[in-house]
Amino acid sequence: MPTYRDRAVVLRTYKLGEADRIISMLSRDHGKIRAVARGVRRTSSKFGGRLDPFNHVDLQLVVGRSLDVVSQVETITAYSRPLRLDYQLFTAAEVMVETADRLVPVEKEPDPVQYRLLAGGLRTLGHGTPDGRRPAETIMDSYLLRALSAAGYAPDLQDCVVCGRPGPHAGFSPSLGGVVCADCQPPATPHPRPETLAYLQALLVGDWPAVRDVPMVVIREAAGLVSAYVTWHLERGLRSLPLLEES
């Protein structure tokens, strides 16, 4: 049977039979993959915890008729270990892998940008940025904005999304896709702090130094806007997002 090798981030696992699992992964070269890991639920399994969600792995797969089969796995980074020790980090990681799963719906269709964004986001979530750790909301919201932008849902945080009038503008409309001027804003449009819009712009481009000393009130306001934006543009809410909001 033909085989292939790839690097991947584990998204989800599902029980299969008495000892197997189906592993859903986002890979570097083959997009989303669903494969069977034989005997992985046995204590004697050679794979151990390598195929836990969030882990970054190098693996070899055998091409199957309906599902491929995992034949070898090596851990690149076990992100599941640090993330499972902190509830906020864990729920933020859940939001990120669920978003990646939704944004890459087609199996075996390469999407290297989404793969790099997810792997980088989990690395930052688990180990922090070079100049220190950021709140889980900051890392997650940066990932969400960048992942949606890569999928074609980039918010406009500069000019009015309706008429194109140059900003800055006070209103932000998740349903319209970004900031809106006073003449174009729908009823009940949120008017976030100017600092919040600047913070969102920094998250969108990954400017970590610019968000180093942002107060929590700005982080929380931005998180609400990002949550509304993601929910609208993915057409249905993320199941894991309310868990983070409750923490």
TrEMBL record:
Keywords: DNA damage, DNA recombination, DNA repair. It comes from the Bacteria. Residues 1-79 form the DNA replication/recombination mediator RecO N-terminal domain. One of its GO terms (biological process) is DNA recombination. SUPFAM superfamilies: ArfGap/RecO-like zinc finger, Nucleic acid-binding proteins. It holds the Pfam family RecO_C. One of its GO terms (cellular component) is bacterial nucleoid. Involved in DNA repair and RecF pathway recombination. Belongs to the RecO family. This is DNA repair protein RecO. It comes from Cutibacterium granulosum DSM 20700. The lineage of its organism: Bacteria, Bacillati, Actinomycetota, Actinomycetes, Propionibacteriales. The gene is recO.
